[in-house]
Structures are given as C-alpha cells and as structure tokens.
Amino acid sequence: MPNRLTIKDIARLSGVGKSTVSRVLNNESGVSDRTRQRVAAVVNQHGFSPSRSARAMRGQSDKVVAIIVSRLDSLSENRAVQTMLPAFYDRGYDPIMLESRFSAQRVEEHLHMLRQRNVDGVVLFGFSGVAEKLPSFWHPSLVLLARDAEGFASVSYDDEGAITLLMEKLYAQGHRHISFLGVPHSDATTGKRRHDAYMAFCQRHALSPRYALPGLGMRLGYEHVASVLSTHTSALVCATDTLALGASKYLQEQQITRLQLASVGNTPLIKFLHPEIVTVDPGYAEAGQQAAAQLIAQMNEQAEPREIIIPARLA
Description:
By secondary structure, the chain is an alpha/beta fold. The protein contains 12 helices and 12 strands. It has 3 domains: about 5-50, Orthogonal Bundle (434 Repressor (Amino-terminal Domain)); about 55-160 and about 285-315, Rossmann fold (3-Layer(aba) Sandwich); about 160-280, Rossmann fold (3-Layer(aba) Sandwich). α10 (about 240-255) links the parallel β8 (about 235-240) and β9. One of its GO terms (biological process) is negative regulation of DNA-templated transcription.
C-alpha cells in the first residue's frame, strides 16, 4: 500500500514511538542500529514514500523555499501567502511554512535549521528587532516582508499613506472628531508609523487626537474601543482590520450606530462581515506576489536585493 502508510502506522508496526520513526526518516542520530533496521524493514515492506512537503523539510527536494510568518492566524499575512504560493509552485519550488510568533530568537533558530537543510530561499514576515538577528549569509536569498533591513531585499507597505488616505476620506465626509485605535510603538510600522500619520493629520487640520494603542488582537479592539470614544466622536480609525472587528462587535453590543468605522486591511473577512467599514487596501496580495517574484529572481541570480514599497489605495 504505497504512500498510504503514516508515521503513526510505521511506529505501531515497528513497535517504537512516532518521534523515533521521524528521527529514522530524517537520518538523525540517537537511534540504535537495531531500531533503525526495524523501522527500515517496515518502511521497505510497505513501500512507504515521504510526502513532498516532508521531503522539502528535510532538504531532499530539488528546489525548496521557506515562508516564515509571524502568526499563522494573521489575516494580512495569509492574504500575502495566498498569492505567494502559486508563484513558487509555477517555478517548481516546494514551499514550507514556519511561524515565528514575533520571536527574534525563533527566527534565528528557523534560519539556522533552514541553512542546514540547504533551503534555497526564504520569505520572512518581519517585525521590530528581527533585522539584528539576520545573518549576512542570507543576503542573496532572503526577502523581508512588511519590514526593511540594510543589505536585504524587502517588500514594505506605505503605512503613513494608508492612514492618511483614511483620514482624508473621513475629513472630506465632514468628520472632525476622529479617534484612533492602534498598536504600541514597539511595532515600528503598524504601530509607530500608522499612529504618527494619524497624529500628523490631526495637527495639520487642528483636530483633537483621541487614541489608544492596545495591540493587534481582536479582543484588544473590543476591550479598548470605549476608551477612545466621547460624546462627540463620529469616526474611528483602526490600524488593522483585526482591531476593527473587535471594535465593531463592541459597538454592536452597545447599539452605537452613529460611528463610522475605518481600518487598514481590506481583508476578505472584513469585506464580507462589515462592508460598511471604510477600508484601505495596503496591498497584501500584491506584496506576496512581489516578494515571491523578487526571491525567485535572486535565487536565479537575475536580480540584486532591493527595497519595494507597495502603495496603499482606498478600497
């Protein structure tokens, strides 16, 4: 029964644990010759062949690229990955996915493992502080997404432009009491740049700023939206769609209907659930395409690392 056997099946038939089977298949140390032979016998008997993705993870595929996302549940990063994958598949690359959870140390560990396994290139969703952990070895074969770093190719969003577009739209509609829900300045782009753009617009137009910077989570939007509302607030700009979803739930529960919501993202979920929210598309889909194209060109020595900025547009 070729290709139908799982690691769990092999472990059961050979009388060892799944981790032991994995070490044998990966040709790792720490397994006795007798155990290795027993597992190999089961594998040979049933004609087991590791899946394509498993071979890619072990560096046994001819062309492998890694995509390191910061969060697997990120709406924006998933949108970029969706456009990235077809580009890699079309050129014969096997993509593998890893998660950093905003840990520079985890990124460092991932990159060390990927180098050992001879992965051809990496698209890394960046965040504040991660650039200091990037070895120069990766200069020609890594593309940063959503961040820039000296010596590395990058695809970034126009964070200031995205917020400015929303503020201009709301201002043109007659709103003069516009609040802001964002991300701490420890996040240099989604946090500091988007908040700075809001503050700059308020200063230019003599508006009184009212804001909170709780973070990225949907629940944070839900829990903190009340803190930025006053009896005069007529519009609320959210730095991300995720914050807007949380804020919208709170407003619905409180039956507050007079407030115009606006957010950066234009993700499919926000468009489906809340078409009334004014959104800016920062170019997540285009960023994925550009990052894949840039990495493929670098891996084939057809381009040098360069900085690409995706323009924002009103959805």
